[in-house]
Amino acid sequence: MEEPPSDAARHPDRVRWNARYGTGFTASFAPHPLAVAALALDLPPGPVADLASGPSGSALLAAAQGRAVTAVDVSDVALGLLGQEARRRGLDHLITLVPADLRAWRPVPGRYALMLGTGFWDPAVFAVAVPGLAPRGVLGWEAFTTAARQARPALPAAWCLRPGEPATLLPAGMTVISQEDRPDGQRGTRRGLLARRDRPGPA
Ligand SMILES: C[S@@+](CC[C@H](N)C(=O)[O-])C[C@H]1O[C@@H](n2cnc3c(N)ncnc32)[C@H](O)[C@@H]1O
């Protein structure tokens, strides 16, 4: 794994999530259902990006299918857990761990067959991620909706999807495959989007 820049150690998101993933945390390494659905689609060749990956079972599933995966997360502790499990499964040569704040990370344009963002919402990050998709590449994104704030008023509105989002924020050249809400018990409602980048038209 790349080392996070030393001045980034005090990044508030890193401090908070490193504490969450620290002593006492057990990773399930279960792939996210949206990732399972996306990886079952007809994807173009190319790598997968898992944004805000955590210790991601989705990244492990994509690698087990032979895909190169870039896992980006602000928490180097989460990425350490993912790297350890990837080594145990003999998949570490396929997974690149990138400890970075997604608000500063930029994908190589047109590179990824699949980009995942589950359990994380920032419309600016969403906007920057989409151009990273290869033609026919698939975007899988899931986050809580503003309805979740009824159950958890402390959840900041900025972390929640507003009505119609994220599909309404897609740029031209993207086609929605599905956008569905699913209840998550006491935690509120999550909304998952699958969308595909169109093939480029004739010049
Ligand atoms: C709720 S977890 C979701 C993890 C995983 N994607 C999943 O679906 O289970 C949110 C993740 O976002 C990461 N995160 C929070 N703020 C971030 C930021 N600014 N840049 C990159 N990752 C961030 C956390 O470290 C954490 O792993």
User: What helical percentage do the residues reach?
Assistant: 10-25%
Distinct ligand kinds: S-adenosylmethionine
CATH fourth-tier homologous superfamily? Vaccinia Virus protein VP39
Q: Give the strand tally.
A: 7
- Would you tell me the overall average pLDDT? 95
Task: Summarize the biggest pleated sheet.
Answer: 7 strands, mixed
Terminus-to-terminus distance: 41 Å
Measured by DSSP, the beta-strand proportion falls in 25-35%
The CATH class name reads: Alpha Beta
Q: How would you explain this protein's 3D organization?
A:
The protein has 203 residues and is α/β, with parallel strands linked by helices. The protein has a single domain, classed as Vaccinia Virus protein VP39 (Rossmann fold, 3-Layer(aba) Sandwich). Helix content is 24%, strand content 26%. It contains six helices and seven strands. It has a seven-stranded mixed sheet with strand order 3-2-1-4-5-7-6, covered by helices on one side. A hairpin with a 5-residue loop joins strand 6 and strand 7 (189-197). The N and C termini lie far apart (41 Å). The mean pLDDT is 95. S-adenosylmethionine is lined by residues 13, 17, 32, 52-54, 56, 73-75, 78, 101-103, 118-120.
Provide a brief overview of the structure.
By secondary structure, the chain is an alpha/beta fold. The chain has helices at 12-20, 33-39, 57-64, 76-88, 123-129, 148-151, and strands at 48-51, 69-73, 95-99, 112-118, 133-144, 174-183, 189-197.
Layout of secondary structure:
Layout: H1 12-20, H2 33-39, E1 48-51, H3 57-64, E2 69-73, H4 76-88, E3 95-99, E4 112-118, H5 123-129, E5 133-144, H6 148-151, E6 174-183, E7 189-197
Parallel strand pairs: 1-2, 1-4, 2-3, 4-5
Antiparallel strand pairs: 5-7, 6-7
The chain binds S-adenosylmethionine (SAM).
